[in-house]
Amino acid sequence: MATEKPEKKILVAVRAADLPIVRDALGIEFNVVVCHTLDDAIDQLTEQVGLIACGVHFDDGAMFDFLRCAKANPETRAIPFFLLIDEGAAYSNAIIEGIRLAAKLLGAAALTDLSRLKTEVGEQQAYERLRQTVRDALSSQGH
């Protein structure tokens, strides 16, 4: 008798203030585990996680620490790690590009500037693009 694989979780590492954006962006479709501290995020990082989404302001800037930790562990290295710049972050293009390059060098899959994406395509379309990215990442792992 075949058993169904358990649904992979999305580990979302953000500030508590960013929870409404997370809820709006992901909706109710996914199994989401939210963490607000680096220690909690590391504790939740298991083989059950299929994708990591981390805000750039997570735990007072611990995003790169979390990224390094996830990529240093052979059991979690292959989990796609996405960085998100939240709304209200008024970074220059140069700073965003610097964050993007550093993230890429450390093994992140992508950096998404949610404010700019919403401006370009509208809020609902931006959220749908994020959800499709999540679906694609999870399905590429045999979810």
Number of helices: 6
Could you name the ranges where pLDDT drops below 50 across 5 or more consecutive residues?
none
What characteristic shape results from the CA principal axes? Answer: globular
In angstroms, what is the radius of gyration? 15 Å
| Beta-strand percent range | 15-25%
Number of strands: 5
Strand order of the largest sheet: 2-1-3-4-5
Q: How far apart are the first and last residues' alpha carbons, in Å?
A: 19 Å
- Residues in helix, %: 40-55%
How many strands, what sense, and barrel or not for the largest sheet? 5 strands, parallel
Instruction: Summarize model confidence as the mean pLDDT.
Output: 89
Oligomer: single chain
Helices and strands, in N-to-C order? EHEHEHEHEHH
Which structural class do the helices and strands define? Answer: alpha/beta
Keywords:
143 residues, 5-stranded parallel sheet, 5 strands, globular
